[in-house]
Design goal:
heterodimer; A: two-stranded antiparallel ribbon; 7 helices; 16% strand; B: mainly alpha; Four Helix Bundle (Hemerythrin (Met), subunit A); 6 helices; 2% strand
């Protein structure tokens, strides 16, 4: 069994989060989970349009959105963030919650520029660890003609950037992932 | 050989790290204990909402059974949305079987382009099973009786997919 990663007890009381899900009890549940992590600046709503307003108004550190919603879905919220003229908003980390975590759904969300696709039912441990990962290992951003968002490579902590061959391999990976695939 | 493309790769400001300090917050165990207590507080509200959603689900299946065309499609869409919401939330409150049955119903709708009497009866079976689970407050993986219930649902779904009279079956 792989060891679960241990994180320091981060003080998250100044972290600001916008949460949107059109299911009211889900919004309450997510709010309660985040509040249990001592995240106090929470803007939770069932209305995606209100969420977009909150994102512009508060410039949160994190957005958590449901994927399937009636009016504006999680993909549209992701695109609105990634295409925002405001630089801070454009780089906001986005977690998408979805009951659909098949490969196609995950790839679509990734290509829209989300940071994480989290499966429903939500797990407190998973949300907490993903937030810790953002603090400890924030993803680089990639900008190409066809993609803007977090680097979709898996982190390779064991590789040395000084190794020219590895650098070349990473560049070839970028070609493959960001161009051949699109 | 690497091609030349305009790729900008950079590290934006880590705003979330900037407003976070180490070692003076809550550890994971404390967080999990707080969430457990919070779920207990939300439990009654959840049960009320699940009851209302299951009633709406029943009504939508009944509507789908008595309509056709656009009206039936609308009812099926509603069935999908409600079962999708039910499965997404139920597991967080311990009702893992509702998540399991709700997923089965969603997959069945996703994989079926048309809905005849058999498909609609199997949808109704899903709704009935979720009602049994919720009204008996069966949390976790259930018991031998619920195992039989799940097996029965799986068998019914299989029967639907093999149904030669399926409305979308190729007449050739």
């Amino acid at each position: 069994m792989p060891m679960e990663p241990q994180h320091p007890a981060y003080n998250l009381s100044h972290v600001e989060v916008v949460v949107v899900d059109d299911c009211p009890i889900m919004v309450k549940l997510l709010g309660m989970i985040l509040n249990s992590m001592d995240i106090k600046k929470l803007h939770c709503t069932t209305d995606p349009e209100r969420a977009l307003e909150d994102i512009s108004k508060y410039r949160p550190h994190l957005v958590i959105t449901d994927l399937l919603m009636n009016t504006i879905d999680g993909m549209a919220i992701t695109k609105a963030i990634r295409f925002s003229p405001d630089e801070e908003i454009r780089h906001t980390p986005i977690f998408v919650l979805s009951g659909f975590t098949d490969k196609e759904c995950v790839l679509q969300a990734r290509d829209a520029g989300v940071n994480e696709v989290l499966a429903k039912p939500v797990s407190t441990k998973t949300i907490y660890r993903r937030i810790c990962n953002l603090i400890e290992r924030p993803p680089n951003f990639i900008e190409t003609d066809s993609y803007f968002g977090p680097d979709r490579h898996l982190p390779r902590p064991s590789l040395s950037d000084s190794d020219a061959r590895i650098k070349q391999a990473v560049e070839e990976d970028i070609d493959r992932i960001y161009f051949d695939a699109n | 050989m690497s091609k030349t493309h305009a790729v900008r790769r950079y590290a934006p400001r880590n705003r979330i790290a900037d407003c976070t300090s180490r070692d003076d917050g809550l550890d994971l165990e404390t967080i999990l204990a707080r969430v457990k207590a919070g779920i207990e507080e939300l439990q009654q509200e959840y049960l009320g909402e699940a009851h209302d959603e299951l009633a709406e689900l029943s009504a939508s299946v009944a509507l789908a059974q008595t309509t056709a065309g656009a009206e039936q499609s609308k009812a099926i869409d509603r069935i999908f949305r409600i079962s999708h919401d039910l499965r997404g939330v139920a597991g967080s409150f311990g009702y893992l079987l509702v998540t399991r049955i709700g997923s089965s119903l969603c997959h069945m709708i996703e994989n079926s382009g048309a809905y005849g009497p058999l498909e609609l009866a199997v949808m109704d079976l899903h709704v009935g099973a979720m009602k049994v689970i919720m009204s008996n407050r069966i949390t976790g993986d259930g018991n031998s009786k619920t195992c039989a219930l799940i097996s029965g649902i799986d068998a019914a779904v299989r029967k639907c997919s093999e149904n030669p009279d399926h409305p979308s079956a190729d007449p050739a």
